[in-house]
Design a protein that fits this description.
41% of the residues lie in helices and 21% in strands. The chain is of the alpha/beta class. β6 and β7 form a beta hairpin. α2 packs parallel to α3, α6 (160-171) packs across α7 and α6 crosses α8 (196-211).
């Protein structure tokens, strides 16, 4: 298997979105370039070989639809459209001009990554580097595809938000994850500024872990910064 990370070009003129998307993709092990307009995107697509394009529709100057048309003359790599306009017409137009999928804003990390993985699998005809979606640490295995967390004592019953928090922590097992990063991972780019929300949900996550028969101390508090999952 080729271990070279997939290369993705993100095109959006909203810094908050490009920061969120690039953060999420890089955390999954993808190599990511970011530009804020269609002209620069075309220049990079001519210079580099990309495995996937993430395009906002409402770009300044050349919009995402026109950019997709021009990219199609250069590459067959999948195109994922992003748009705040969640209408059937927008989706149909995007697919008809060569797009492969459509994601309405706002969206969360898991939905974005799931769409990206599906498009890369479809484009490669199989699996790809970083496609093992199961994480194991301290006797607990988290399966992102099945959306389950389990171990020798059985499954831990988690809400979607608790699952996202546990996934974020387990992917960085042994390392501290800040409250801000946990907010971004579990709530998406339009995350709350009140980090105490994280503390409340972490308490519930620990309660669920303990109720399932596991050690709630697997999720450690690092005072003044965030949380850490034991390796």
């Amino acid at each position: 298997m080729n271990e070279t990370p997939n290369r993705i070009l993100v095109v959006d003129d909203e810094p908050s979105i490009t920061e969120f998307v690039s953060y999420a993709l890089k955390k999954e092990g993808f190599y990511t370039d970011v530009v804020d307009n269609g002209e620069d995107a075309l220049a990079l697509a001519t210079k580099n070989s990309y495995d996937l394009f993430v395009l906002d529709i409402m770009l300044p100057g050349m919009d995402g639809y026109e950019l997709c048309r021009r990219l199609r003359s250069k590459t067959t790599a999948p195109v994922l459209f992003l748009s705040a306009r969640d209408t059937e017409l927008d989706k149909v137009v995007g697919l008809e001009i060569g797009g492969d999928d459509y994601l309405a804003k706002p969206f969360g990390v898991r939905e974005l990554i799931a769409r990206v993985r599906a498009l890369l699998r479809r484009g490669s005809g199989g699996d790809f580097p970083g496609a093992n979606h199961a994480i194991t640490a301290s006797g607990i295995t988290l399966d992102e595809d099945a959306h389950t967390a389990s171990g020798s004592k059985g499954e831990i019953d988690l809400t979607p938000r608790e699952f996202e928090l546990l996934a974020s922590l387990m992917k960085s097992a042994g390392k501290v994850v800040s409250r801000e990063d946990l907010l971004r991972d579990a709530w998406g780019w339009e995350y709350l500024t009140e980090t105490k929300t994280v503390d409340t949900h972490i308490k519930r996550l620990r309660d669920k872990i303990e109720s399932a028969g596991y050690d709630p101390g697997l999720v450690e508090t690092v005072r003044g910064y965030g949380y850490r999952f034991k390796q």
